[in-house]
Amino acid sequence: EVQLVQSGAEVKKPGESLKISCKGSGYSFTSNWIGWVRQMPGKGLEWMGIIFPGDSDTRYSPSFQGQVTFSADRSVSTAYLHWRSLKASDTARYYCARLGTSGWNYWGQGTLVTVSS
Amino acid sequence: SYELTQPPSVSASPGQTARITCSADALPNQYAYWFQQRPGQAPVMIICKDIERPSGIPERFSGSRSGTTVTLTISGVQAEDEADYYCQSADSSGNWVFGGGTKLTVL
Questions:
Q1: How many Å from the N-terminal Cα to the C-terminal Cα in chain A?
Q2: How confident is the model at residue B68 (pLDDT cuts 50, 70, 90)?
């Protein structure tokens, strides 16, 4: 069974760094794109970008270019979303998803990130 | 930038048909996908490649396309269908994007 399991909720202060994770199982982790999606409180879904764990090819949506970094560790079948310096406006729930032949058909449960002083 | 436009809200009584549209200039060249998101839950893909229904999705959900507009139709709306619905597609550079989302209210 394909599963994406994300790391737990985080509470951080502005300026701190953070890395959240998305662990894939039940499939060949290096063979499918992983996407990241932001959902700010009470708002819609926003596409952040994608990473191909097989070769770490990464593509960022224009709004998120330079704001976050994607990475992947094939040895532990895990993708990461990293911030160097968090802002209050980064408060949101973040989802990872897997691109299959039919589309983005598997999603993680989401990670809630709260940034507050 | 590439944008997908959805109505903010749609309402229907139980048993009626609800239709949610999604339009964009570049849509004819790329497939569209539809997601359902219930409160507090992760999105679920309910329509792929414009018209296909993934395994496990009820038959009352269907997708269609006409020119630059794709439509999600829910035939025989049920109370459990009350949720937010998002269309998704990609531009010519492979950048994925969501529509703004439509809140379906079951009256």
A1: 40
A2: confident
